[in-house]
Amino acid sequence: MRHSLVVLPQCGAEQQVIPQEYMIAYDIAMNFIKKGYVVIYGLEDNASQTVKRMAASELIPQAKNLISSGNMVLIKRNSAVELKSKSSMQKIKKTWESIVFSKSRKVVTLCAASPLIMSKRYEQLVVFERIIQTEERKRSGEAVCFYTLDGLMALPLSRVIEVIRLHDFTLHRGLVYSVWTSRMILDIIKQSLDSTLGESGAFVTLKSLKLIYKIDDNDILVNPHLFEGTIRRMFGKAAEDLLETIKKDLLQRTLFLQLTNSDDIESLTRHS
User: What DSSP assignment string belongs to the chain?
Assistant: First the structure.
């Protein structure tokens, strides 16, 4: 099972008849349906309102028929959140499998992560993402996790690095997939250090991390909490702005509406 990340910008939903984040989600859902997937849609709470919005959007005009034929399944947004909020990993896995493995065809699940971020249940969020990333590989299909830029900016940098690394891809405009690598994340961190601290800022900082604190490039990714804590120790009050800059630069590259290019990413592929 592929594991993809969608990061939505601030959409100004209150000013739109159909919020932009829903339009993006409907477009993604219909793309998968056309490719023969069963779509499990868990981004909204009111099923009847969801069907009306899908039809009004003209992106999924036959929403009722798709549901009755079993090509699309609606689950409440809070139900998707519940999958991520259980303290027992086995309970999470059992609930997840009861939904995804019950279908005979390839399945794509669209679920929202923002409610967990809003309630500051960060650990449960990471646990669920890790289950998909490490255990649910036998099933043919995809899990697409929707985050907002504001929600991710509210997380510590260490959590943002975890979220990015726990997904195979970020999904961008035109349904283009960006494959994230360790080198990409480290390069962005180095660029942020240089832009904030000046020329050679990254070299000096990473050299100090390695010589004084025994933290190398790999440790930054494997243990981002240690990296963040050490940066705070090194820079004191100035660390907050530095960490925020790194986080902002990382997330700018993940945005769904970000136009990617060959310099930004390791690999691009369209879903087949």
Answer: -EEEEEEE----GGG-SS-HHHHHHHHHHHHHHHTTPEEEEES-S-HHHHHHHHHHHTSSTTHHHHHHTTSEEE--HHHHHHHHH-S-HHHHHHHHHHHHTT-SS-EEEEEE-HHHHHTT-HHHHHHHHHHHHHT--SSSEEEEEEEEHHHHHTS-HHHHHHHHHTSSEEEETTTEEEE--HHHHHHHHHHHHHHHH-TTHHHHHHHHHHHHH---HHHHHH-HHHHHHHHHHHHGGGHHHHHHHHHHHHHHHHBTT----TTT-SEEEE--
For residue 41, the cross-strand partners are 74, 110
Question: What are the residue boundaries of the structural domains of the chain, listed by start?
Answer: 2-155, 182-265
Residue 83: pLDDT band with limits 50, 70, 90: low
Predicted structure pTM score: 0.85
Q: Give me the amino acid identity at 126.
A: V
Say what the pLDDT of residue 124 is.
75
Whether residue 179 has pLDDT greater than 60: yes
At the second CATH level, the architecture of 2-155 is 3-Layer(aba) Sandwich (3.40)
User: Own/partner pairs for 197-201, CB < 8 Å, 24+ apart?
Assistant: 197/242
At 96, is the pLDDT very low, low, confident or very high (cuts 50, 70, 90)?
low
